[in-house]
Structure formats: structure tokens, C-alpha cells
Amino acid sequence: MKDLFKGCWTIPNLLSFLRIVIVPVFAYFFMQGQYGWAVFMLVLSGLSDFFDGKIARKFNQISALGKILDPVADKLTQITLAVLLFLSFNKADDATLKAFSWVFLVFIIKEFVMVLGGAVMLAFGIRPGAAEIYGKVSTFAFYAVMIFIVAFGPEIGVFKAFFTIPNVLMMILVVISAILTLVAFASYMPGTFRQFKERFSKK
Asked: What is the DSSP string of 25-90?
């Protein structure tokens, strides 16, 4: 625990903590139908995610706590977004959107499995690995697509009066993001299995 908080007072860690705080604020605005503020919170979260990694690497401010806060912030944001969009489209008037809403469960299930897997690894004294390039690409795509949907999506888009994403285009973008998410998930498997194998071989 002492090592965990060693050198924890860094700008990247504060940005990661900010992203965690943003999650309930975003959820509140979204559920209140204040989608303009919800979009602003999402953009702020995405920018803080981008800059905390850049700052940590550039100024060598990578810490043990940061390696935990960053993925926690990512998973809380992604689970919250996926749940809220699933609920929104599941009660849509458009039957196609209502049926399509179940695709958002892919993101929810993947994140819950990752959280559960991370907890199991920590229980065995194995530290989950850092995000691979696939994970970073899928996270960027997820943020981009979801911000686009909250801003211009059918039924909920804050700027839909100016432009509304056609249903087909929105579905294609979400499916692409879901595929990237599954590819990223699969990319963690070899390293995870290797860590478990090394752990038990030592015993």
C-alpha cells in the first residue's frame, strides 16, 4: 500500500481522478435530458484521458496509483455510457433502434468481464497489464462514436435539429466500435494466460 501511494500527487493522477468524478456528473445530466452538458462532460473526460497519458510519459510521472486510476476511470466511463445509451434506445419509439439497443450490452459485458478478471488477477498477486495498442484504439473509437451519438444521435442528440445521424450510419459506427472492443479484449488474453502460467509454475 505504501508503494501504491508513492509519488501519487501528479497531474496525470489528478486528471484520472477528475474523470472518475465526471462519471456521476455526466450520468446526472444525461438522465435529466440535459444532453448539451452531458456532451461537454464527455468531451472533458476524453481530453483528460488523452492528456494524462501524454503528460505521464513526457514528464516521467507514471505511478503505481496511476496504473490503477486510469483503467478504473476508463471502465466506469464506458460502462456508464453503454448502460445509459442502452436504456435510452431500448425505450425508443423507433422499433429498429429499440432492437439495436442490445448491441450496447457487448460493451457492458466486456467491461464487467475485464473488471472481474482484474480482481481475480489481483487476488492471485498478478498485476493486470497496461493497455495494448488495440485497447487504446478501441477506447478512442468508443469515445468518438459515443460523443457523436450523444451530440447528433437519433432521439437523444443535443444537436439533432441541425444534423441527425441516419440510423444505419449510427448502427455501423457502433458495430465497428463493438468489434474493436472485442479485438482489444482478445488481445489481453495471451498475456493474461502467460502471467497465470508463470505464477503457478513458480509454485
From this structure: HHHHHHHTT-HHHHHHHHHHHHHHHHHHHHHHHHTT---HHHHHHHHHHHHHHHHHHHHHHHHHHH
The 10s digit of each residue's pLDDT in 169-179 is 999 999 999 99
Q: Which of 19, 38, 20 is closest to 150 using CA atoms?
A: 38
Domains contained in the chain, CATH given? 11-202 (1.20.120.1760)
What's the CA gap between 2 and 65, in Å, rounded? 10
Single-letter code of the amino acid located at 106: V
Phi first, then psi, for residue 25 (nearest 5°) are -65, -45
Q: How far apart are CA 147 and CA 78, in angstroms?
A: 11
HSE (side-chain half, CA atoms, 13 Å) at 151: 12
| Residue in the structure block whose three cell numbers are 497519458 | 53
**What per-residue confidence (pLDDT) applies to 5?**
53
pLDDT in tens, 135-191: 888 888 988 898 899 889 888 888 888 889 999 999 999 999 999 999 988 888 877
For residue 161 the three cell numbers come to 435539429
How far is the C-alpha of 56 from the C-alpha of 70, rounded, in Å? 11
